[in-house]
Amino acid sequence: MLDLMRLEGCPLLQAAGWNRSRAGHLAERLGRLNLCYPPLVPPEAIFPAAWEIVDALEGTVNPNQCPELGPGATCHAVEFDFLGYDAGGAFVMEEPLEPLLRQAEEYARGKGYRNLKYVIGSTGMSCHGRPLGDYAKELAELHSLDREHYDFFYGYGFRPAGFLPNCYGENYHGIIMIKGLAPDSLY
Prior knowledge:
The chain is built from eight helices and five strands. The protein is α+β, with helices and mostly antiparallel strands and 187 residues long. The chain has a three-stranded antiparallel sheet. Strands 1-2 form a two-stranded antiparallel ribbon. The longest helix has 17 residues. The two termini are 34 Å apart. About 12% of the residues have low confidence.
């Protein structure tokens, strides 16, 4: 169960004016959607743990706290990155969110999806801070420089499959990570 008292103590949410009275109204808000603009994920596809998170935080506007981009413009998205801070403010996304990741993978397999995709920034990676050369060679030689985040997802079965050059800034690349779900997957 989501700890609403802990969320209420989060400085980011306080700054956005969030309080626990926002929780518990997602079904009602979904009922008022303009069906010309359906949600990207159908409500019945939201598994219980994610539903509780979305229900509590939907519509909250926060400064961007993505570790890849740093604080910046506001956004209406609740990302896993935002949920990865512990009570002391340290970023610890990997282990605490593994059960949610496993549930998402199970759901995707059940729907017949063949891959999961994830993009990670190049911080702490061998390709960071310089222009990319031959992409195939860069991909073959890509390695972590003790980047725990990358190492966790690699250990979970995600593999680098490509680049989004300079997507976070000059020489700050996105690395496309894929986890194959089908038995015949190359990843």
